Amino acid sequence: MHIGCPVTEFQRLISGKYKLRIVWDLKDGPLRYGKLRNGLLRGADGSPPIAPRVLSRELKALTDAGLIARNDFGTIPPKVEYRLTLAGRSFIPIIASIQAWGTRHLRRAG
Amino acid sequence: MHIGCPVTEFQRLISGKYKLRIVWDLKDGPLRYGKLRNGLLRGADGSPPIAPRVLSRELKALTDAGLIARNDFGTIPPKVEYRLTLAGRSFIPIIASIQAWGTRHLRRAG
DNA sequence: CGGGATCCCGGATGATACTG
DNA sequence: CAGTATCATCCGGGATCCCG
């Protein structure tokens, strides 16, 4: 596949409702699937909880993209950790900018 | 509507295949609909050209979001310009970071 | 506990034709 | 020139069930 424009590619890369949030939530260290899931639940303002399929899907996409890495401990019961790769970590400042920008310019409508 | 997390809100805001590109392409000054359209065509690597409906839709969304402004000259033939608002302009550095990051980490596969 | 398999739905995207 | 109307389609997202 061709890459025409890095911006457009980025668009595709983070397409997915929770991708940025996932990367962001991993900034302080590895998290297990369940923890990640619970973190994404925040906003009990009526927003539906994330479906396992969706979280799984986005985690896989981010892993394939090289932003995060999967650590399967292979135990019973299962334990799987996700952590940022170097590429993923290098992206954190940008999300921070986004967050700052959003806080200033997306100030709630209601 | 509630805003849980600025990052998630941002996700929603730029959801749309070309939104970031549109903002980015406007950074050097206002552009007319057709110019914008042609600019988005780049990447004649087989990627389908943007459908008028889609461009129109994204422009409206960005306008509603307050990132760009629409200037209708009301002439025949029609002339409509789009330009960044202050909020939109303040977002340019972030897209620049994204571009820089993408150039470093999304290095083309082919 | 961490998902995979399956089914469903709505919205986003795309192609084409048409108009003020 | 700058869109809108219309129709077809694809895909992301959600819900549920189940298994190792």
Plain-language structure description:
The termini of chain A are far apart. In chain A, a hairpin with a 7-residue loop joins strand 2 (68-72) and strand 3. The first copy, chain A, is globular, with a radius of gyration of 15 Å. Chain A has 6 helices and 3 strands. Chain A has helices at residues 6-14, 19-25, 33-41, 52-65, 86-89, 92-105; strands at residues 31-32, 68-72, 80-84. The model of chain A has no long low-confidence stretch (mean pLDDT 90). Chain A is mainly alpha-helical. The longest helix of chain A has 14 residues, at 52-65. In chain A, strands 1-3-2 form a 3-stranded antiparallel sheet. Chain A has a domain at 32-105: Arc Repressor Mutant, subunit A (Orthogonal Bundle), CATH 1.10.10.10. The structure holds a DNA duplex (20 and 20 nucleotides).
Overview in brief:
The structure is a homodimer of 110-residue chains. By secondary structure, the first copy, chain A, is mainly α. Chain A is built from six helices and three strands.
What is the element string of chain A, with H for helices and E for strands?
HHEHHEEHH
> Stretches of chain A where pLDDT falls below 50 for ≥5 residues?
none
What is the number of E strands of chain A?
3
Radius of gyration of chain A: 15 Å
Assembly state: homodimer
Mean pLDDT of chain A: 90
The structure class of chain A reads mainly alpha
Query: How large a portion of the residues of chain A is in β-strands, by DSSP E?
Result: 5-15%
Shape designation of chain A: globular
| Text of the CATH class of the domain at 32-105 in chain A | Mainly Alpha
Q: Largest interface here, residues on each chain?
A: A-B, 44 and 44 residues
Number of helices of chain A: 6
Strands side by side in the biggest sheet of chain A:
1-3-2
CATH topology heading of the domain at 32-105 in chain A = Arc Repressor Mutant, subunit A
Give the termini separation of chain A.
43 Å
The profile of the biggest β sheet of chain A is: 3 strands, antiparallel
Approximate helicity band of chain A:
40-55%
CATH architecture level-2 label of the domain at 32-105 in chain A: Orthogonal Bundle
What would CATH call the homologous superfamily of the domain at 32-105 in chain A? Winged helix-like DNA-binding domain superfamily/Winged helix DNA-binding domain
